[in-house]
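Convert to structure. Protein one:
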Amino acid sequence: MSRAPAPAKINVALVVGPLRHDHKHEVATVLQRIDLADRVAVTASDRLEVTGFAEDALVRGALEGLAAAAGVEPRFAARIEKRIPVAAGLGGGSSDAATALRLANELLPQPLAAGELRLLAATLGADCPFFLASGPQFGTGDGSELAPLQLPQDYWVLLVLPEGARKESTAEVYRRFDERGGHREFEERRAGLARALASVSQAADLAALPPNDLASSPVAAELIGLGAFRADVSGAGPAVFGLFLHHRQARAARRALRGRGRVWLTVPAW
């Protein structure tokens, strides 16, 4: 049996553009893993089975897709141990699927090449290829076209999932974005993000990145008030992150926000 962590991610920045011909939106996003992770285990089996998380669809689909691409029967048993909150904008399902893909691929007599595995991951969701890469990445296109970033990793990440918050469907979030004309001046905003990234030399410089185009939360302002140098919604939300230079400030903010919902104090992960 092979086991591995399946880390969450935050979108440190997310700029969104117009609808593409494939009915996805053009984006430019900064993707960063964090040290909050599910655990995924995969072993060879006489049939396909996924246990541990009744709501799973992505891991099963990933293993079926891998078997089809490799020309074999989907004879894998996977187990998921969930720690990442579900439907929070933290990419837990995509991370589980990518991790299961990687582990199952290693069990094949003739594993798929890395490029083939990335293409398969992209069919499962725009975030999936990121979890097969290493380090922070700049996602463009629909988010699955990746370029590595050299970003500081010496900060603390406080996550807040506000009490009672529920993620809207991705389609609904993007529908509202389109209705308000959020895609206007996308090229200028994307260029602004690229310029800000080029100027990052220390963690505090991440404060200059533009805010999330899709979602906002009053909790972000609270995090800034508690000492975060950057705070925003991750992806389409509802999870909110605050980045802190000092552990003491991050711990104090965690205590202050415990009444607002579920909180996690973590760090960047490679």
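Protein two, convert as well:
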Amino acid sequence: MILFSIILFIYFLFLGYILKNIYIGNLNYLIYYLLLFLPFYTFFQLISLKLTGHVFSVHIIKYSKDFVIFSSLCVYILGYKNEWIKFSFKFSFLDKLIILFTLITLIFTVIPIGQADFISRILYSKNIFIISIVYFFGRLSIVSSEQWKFVKIILIFLVVFGFSVSGIEYFSNHHLHSILNYSEYLINIYDRMPVGNFGLSWTFERNPFQGRFAAFFSDPLEFSASLILFLSFFLFELYQSKLKSHKFINILFLVMIFCSFLFAYSRASIVSAFFILIVSLILIKKYNLLYRVFFFFIIISLLVFFNASNDFIYFLEDTLSFRELSSLGHLFEWIEGVLTIVENPFGIGLAMSGNASSVDQSIKIGGENQFLIYGIQMGIISLIIYLLMISISIYHSFKVFLLSKTNHVKSIAFVSGLTKLGLLIPLFTANAELYLFVSLFSWFLVGVTETNFLKSSQSIDNGIM
């Protein structure tokens, strides 16, 4: 209990420092909170429950995140209460889409549609509202070169620490989450029984004998999705490196990231990693290197295929043909989701689909595709809007990367665009907006990039660029 009190005291000191700066108008300090707290969000809760044995300590940590986001919004609005007449803000098409998506969410929260109760709808919609708030905080933030360098330091720490922890888990074939009583956490916090051969959940295993590992993230799927963001960042650093020593260091980080992909073993994220590697080479016009990557990939694939065990070949064939249990589960969920949208094109109500804690699993429909989850709950219009939000985010990010002359702005645009692009496959196979770190941090970067996109567009219109 004393140890937890010390940890909690340090956390609240950090929280106070972040809130102090946000409350006086330094909105970009939110980026430090997203980076330093959200990767450890579940890990922190597990430690608190193990050290105290009280559910209340977990709720303090869980809702501190919501307090930071919503209180920052309130203080920001109240701080400008006498300035709204003078306040000017040019809304982009992406801004309008996100506002419209938020308004639809608000309507479905208030109107009693579906079997979920009002509290469940509020808790579910809260997570969507947070995405919108974080995005607009990004729109209003100016991230300097010095601040982006500090972001790099934090990302290096996360990559090295994540690789180290997941590596130890992999070679010992023992989950850190088991040591921290993740099963007890599921029962006491989410009223869900642990499942699978490791007594955690199915996402923590690749087969009955070999686990998938999450390091300090909530589960292997969130860890692997976050690796997509790390990969995007260090690919840019590698491409911009001019000294051989810097190239070597960045290659070392990339090796750590690819090893971590294998430890987490999310097939969707592994495919995404190769996809964004190819797209990144196209963006920087390294076509010769692209051909070499293709050639190397083909050679490695042939070597793996002809030297792999029969079990691996059968697993690969079953995955591609949707005969493997996990792939088959995705397929059934997709079919159920599509049929529900066809039968209910205007939605069946919030908190009726997906794997969020506010969704009653006994009444949920679908849950293995973020796009279908929104479509099931709020109708086909919301699904189209969300698709447009993602697509425009990627397009505008790539435009800023190509047009900007400022290195750190190019880096932010590169990371936001490739991360959103890389998350497309996980979004098709999971409720991926629940991965708080990569979801909120990438939406913040999209907001920052959108501001730079408008500046670039205005410069072109004025004949400056």
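The chain has a mean pLDDT of 87. The CA atoms of residues 205 and 211 lie 4 Å apart.
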